[in-house]
Amino acid sequence: MVQETFTKSAIILTLVLSISMIGLGFITEVGAKTTLVPVNFTELAKTAKPGVVNIRTVKTIKGGGRVFRHFFGRQFGNKDPFEKFFGPSPKQNPRQDFKQRSLGSGFIIDQEGFIVTNNHVIEGAEEITVKIANGKEYDAEIIGRDPSTDLALIKIKPRERLAPLTMGDSDALEVGSWVVAIGSPFGLEQTVTAGIVSAKGRTIGSGPYDDFIQTDASINFGNSGGPLFNMQGEVIGINTAITASGHGIGFAIPSNLAKDVVVQLRDNGEVTRGWLGVGIQDLDNELADYYNVDNGEGALITQVFEGDPADQAGIKVKDVIVAVDGQKVSSSRDLTRLIAKASVGKKTDVTVVRNGRKKTISVTLGKRDKEKQTAKKEKGIDQGFGFSVDDLSPEMASRFGYEKGESGVVVVQIEPGGMASKAGLEMGDIIKEVDRQSVDTANEFAKLIEAAGGKDTVQLLVTGRRGGYRVINLKK
Fold first, then answer.
1. Catalytic entry in 105, 184, 224, 388
2. Secondary structure of residue 9 in the 3-state scheme
3. Element (H, E) at 198
4. Cβ atoms within 10 A of the Cβ of 202, count?
5. CA dihedral defined by 255, 258, 264, 269, rounded to 10 degrees?
6. SS3 category, 268
7. Which of 26, 206, 261, 357 is least enclosed, having the fewest CB within 10 Å?
8. H or E stretch including 8?
9. pTM of the model
């Protein structure tokens, strides 16, 4: 009898505990193991939704423009799918100016009414209307924009208490973690979708600071600028991009990247970044062996701009940067990110491998700005064609299997799916001529490409390791 009573009590206790865990949203049996899986996201959604806003913008498109033809042309047949949200399509002559209305999302970060969103949501906007969770609407002003990271800060003047959201630590996020997106896809406000972190550190070719969180939480037109949450209700990403050809693949800017940008936008209205003044590329196995870099990680210096901070400090071409202020540099992207985060005028310790030996050099960073970048024409910049070149040095010739004395510039990087890739250009190809003009150095190549800026097509005379010549047509 005692044994029977004990058994019944144990069963009841187990049921109570199980029901409690289900109520909290956690319990799934997988074989002999118990894994924690959320049953629903109700509490998270209730807590987070008041801090998420809908953003509507209006801008004037001169002469209709490409956007007019995209949204109101024949692409969608006779019916405009956005008429439900924007009203009837304009029927005027496409060459007339018209008001383009756009949708986006954002989230509140404090009681003063500051709101984070994407730059592309509000760029060029003449009117910005923010609708908060309780349905009230406010006009917003732009505090600052950062096109390089596609982040922007806007502000409303609230007449009530707001529900700010907290920025979390995106570095602590792990692949496979559950995440929740809240936003206004297609104008459907306060839409909640869930998924997992599919990958981290994704580069999608949107800019120099690509470092996206990839997620399969459903993200669509109108989600841009909205928050991506971890299971603690913290914002760990800003939903920014989707793939045009696929479903279930979205990209978010990590919160740790956004934090510094937001602070600078709030304090200064713009973002300033450190400038080293070098051209760089990643190491492959052969280059790592050639330059005696033990673990194969680092950023190879391919060019040092005269008079800039790196030149003044004594950094040289063929140095391999492996650390900045003690933080490891595994790739050229790491170096770009670390230097950009550093303060202008800051003395920064740059560790390089030179002739197989490590050396630390103190560099006082300058300011990175568009004018400087345009004037310098780093070798890594492809000017919109989706590839990068370098001088055909003896090391490069050996690396790609060419005889000594070969002339031209060598293709060292190809953007997958980019214009050059589609045109048939390959890694290791040697470019001999640009529009029938001989080219021998990367600087000459940059000048010839810039000179061809007004043309619809740029022709490259190219040879490859298989021999023979071919013409590559790059159409803008």
1. 224
2. helix
3. strand 191-202
4. 15
5. -130
6. helix
7. 357
8. helix 2-24
9. 0.65
Task: State residue 39's pLDDT score.
Answer: 66
Q: What span, in angstroms and rounded, lies between the C-alpha atoms of 83 and 77?
A: 13
| DSSP run (H or E) holding 437 | strand 437-438
438 is catalytic: no
Indicate which residue of 80, 150, 211, 391 is catalytic: 150
Is residue 349 among the annotated active site residues? Answer: no
In the structure encoding, which two tokens stand for residue 156, read together?
A: 């409303």
Task: Copy the structure tokens of residue 392.
Answer: 């055909």
The identity of residue 304, as a single letter, is V
Per residue in 22-54, pLDDT tens?
444 444 444 444 445 676 899 999 999 999 999
Closest to 264 (Cα-Cα) out of 272, 276, 274: 272
Please tell me which residue in 80, 102, 120, 332 is annotated as part of the active site: 120
* 149, 48, 141, 221: CA torsion to nearest 10: 60
Distance CA 112, CA 135 (A): 18
pLDDT at 449: 83
d(CA 352, CA 322): 6
Among 411, 264, 254, 267, residue whose Cα is nearest residue 337: 254
Query: What would the DSSP string read from start to end of 208-257?
Result: TT--EEEE-S---TT-TT-EEE-TTS-EEEEEEEE-TT-SS-EEEEEHHH
Amino acid code (one letter) for 108: I
Q: What angle do CA 194, 197, 202 make, to 5 degrees?
A: 130
DSSP string, 25-91: TEEEEETTEEEEEES--HHHHHHHGGGEEEEEEEEEETTSHHHHHHHHSGGGTTS-TTHHHH-SPP-
Residue 363 near residue 315 (C-beta atoms within 8 A)? yes
**Ramachandran category for residue 408: left, alpha or beta (phi over 0 → left; psi -120 to 50 → alpha):** left
Yes or no: say if 220 and 238 are a contact pair by the CB < 8 Å rule: no
- Residues 343 and 71: their CA atoms lie apart, in Å, by 42
The question of whether 150 is a catalytic residue gets the answer yes
